[in-house]
Amino acid sequence: MDEIARDQLSGSLRRGAVKKNVAAIHVSGKLTLLQRKLSNVLLLNAYDTLISQPVHHIDARTLTMMIGYNSNDMETLKQSLRGLAETVAEWDMLDADGQQEWGVSSLLSYAKLKSGICEYAYSPALAEKLNDPKVFALINLNIQRRFTSGHALALYENCYRFVRTGSTGWWSLDLFRRLMGVADSPYYEVFKHLNAKVIKPAVAEVNKTSNIVVTPETRKMGRSVTDIRFKIAENPQLSILDLDDGEGLRASPVYGRLVALGVSDRLARQWVKEHGEDYVRGKLDYVAGQGGVKNAVGYLKAALTEDFGSTVSPRNPGVPQAPVSDRGKRLARVRDLAAARTPTQRDADKRLFGSKLEGAARDDFERHGWMSALNARAIEAFWEDLVPGAFE
Question: 187, 176, 250: which is closest to 214 by C-alpha?
């Protein structure tokens, strides 16, 4: 999580472009790949309420899914959380009045696991810094899951915020070793070792895995390398449009149907994020079944906001329809539960449930999502386990 770059974020996390002259938040010590991913997901989950809420929650199953850790071994998760609480973040920057400010804080002030829920908090001073969009932001979680090396992920995080300027600028080797988490190792004080074991492998993985291509350049004093910088270009093989802010929304069939209907790119992504794919798909089917609709986009917007096709007549909103069956009520409850989740949680929920399916059951879930009739009982059991008492 060292000096994480401001990537394009989903939903309410989306902010303006990163300014060039932004001070960094540096993290002391070496974070493992799992800890680095964990810190990013925790921040993503808390970002909207960093200042307004002192404590944040995320269910442990969603958390492990988002970091690509599919084990039930909670000891590993505990160890990673312990590592974040023991790791120090340090900042040195100008405040709004132009005054220099230095500060230090643990990455997490505390974390605890209880009843399948991870509760955690940041110190007020660090939360204030993390909440500043000019200082800190999140990386693309779809990209994050691809990395297998902590050094590569650290390099990506430290380079991506400079993608619009094309270069990181010169870093002293001391600073670079800190950013890579190897400052405490005498072995990496020798540039030959640093280059062979950290720089070259990390550059290769970033260029293969992420949406940017980085090229290292060094500066010498005499025969000794003293500074390093990285030139940065967008990776034409992995466009950010294809990865779509960590959620792959543009690759979704629902997104394609919205655009074909005449919905703008921005609005299509917004609707899918806000309502969930299953809910939007149902309203698209509903609007398509009405026939003769002159303004399909406007009618779809009304269907989404007013929930046409559920418990009232679409053409006469004040007239109730026939009583909804028990199965219909349970489907509606599943839809509401899914819609109440954050975009990242929805993605994790689907991945987790889908990973347990095979054959026809998996195919039906991929086509129909949470409305899959073939998986109805399993779906209800999944949500009952995730949200106890959900169907009472």
Answer: 176
Residues 381, 293: Cα–Cα separation, whole Å? 38
In sequence order, the β-bridge partners of residue 113 are 118
> Is residue 6 a part of any domain in this protein?
no
Extract the tokens encoding 131. 């909440």
- Within a domain: 4: no
Per-residue pLDDT tens digits for 111-147: 999 988 999 999 998 888 777 654 443 345 556 667 7
Residues 54 and 190 in one domain: yes
Beta bridge partners of 232: 214
CA–CA distance, 256 with 265 (Å, rounded to integer): 10
Residue 361 pLDDT > 50: yes
Tens of pLDDT, residues 137-182: 334 555 666 778 888 988 987 888 787 788 988 999 998 998 888 8
Same domain for 376 and 361:
yes
230 in Cβ contact with 215 (< 8 Å): yes
Query: Which 3 state secondary structure label does DSSP give 360?
Result: helix
Query: In 3D, which of 315, 8, 6 has the Cα closest to residue 132?
Result: 6
Question: Does residue 3 fall inside a structural domain?
Answer: no
Residue 8: C-alpha distances to residues 11, 59, 276, 292 (Å) = 10, 25, 20, 39
Q: Verify that 323 and 363 share a domain, yes or no.
A: yes
Q: Which two tokens stand for residue 244?
A: 């779509």
Domain that holds residue 31: 11-234
